[in-house]
Amino acid sequence: MEYNLTGAFLVGLMGAGHCFGMCGGLVGAFSSQLPAARRGQNPLAQQLSFLLPYNLGRILSYSLAGALVGGSAAGLGMLFDIDIYLLVLRLIAGVMMIAMGLYIARIWVGLVQIERLGQGLWRLLKPLSQKVLPVTHPGQALLAGMVWGWLPCGLVYSTLTWAVASGSASQGALIMLCFGLGTLPALLSAGVAAKALADWAQKRAVRLIAGLLLVGFGIQTLYIALAQLD
User: Fold this and answer.
1) pLDDT value for 145
2) Which pTM value belongs to this model?
């Protein structure tokens, strides 16, 4: 399971380009609506007092989703007393890991089509996001992050397949927690730091190394699952 945690963190970290495109605008709009720093208050500290709870809320939603799908898989295993479906899910998780590696390496980008699966859920949740704006205190920022954590995202959905395949609520939550932590550098960065991170993540050599590493994790996952089927 350790390689799943490493892989989940790596997906979040190396998905920086996708994060900037998908959530960067939201974070930018969120930041622009924050209350101005009070006299004598450090502007960066004031901004972080909102951005940190916002991202905490987002990661909490990821972890909750991981716990729900992992716990559901565990419940089905106890209810029906069968393990074959978990092996099938591990095969799917291995395939999705390979797909994410190919996406990050920019060899194949079909993964983004998965985001269409969550459009219906987001239409239901979008009105909630509008109710917490504008954000005037950190508690609102936490709630806003929890809502926006359900924004349709191919990387999130793909990582959730690993959480399902873990067959455990705690492991599923941990996998999604690691993914969320990986996204923090991209979504907490601002200005020059954001551009530097984006430029680094988009370097061909970095993308290839990270992508091929994920492909290797996926192949290992497939091998283990196939071995268990024998």
Assistant:
1) 86
2) 0.76
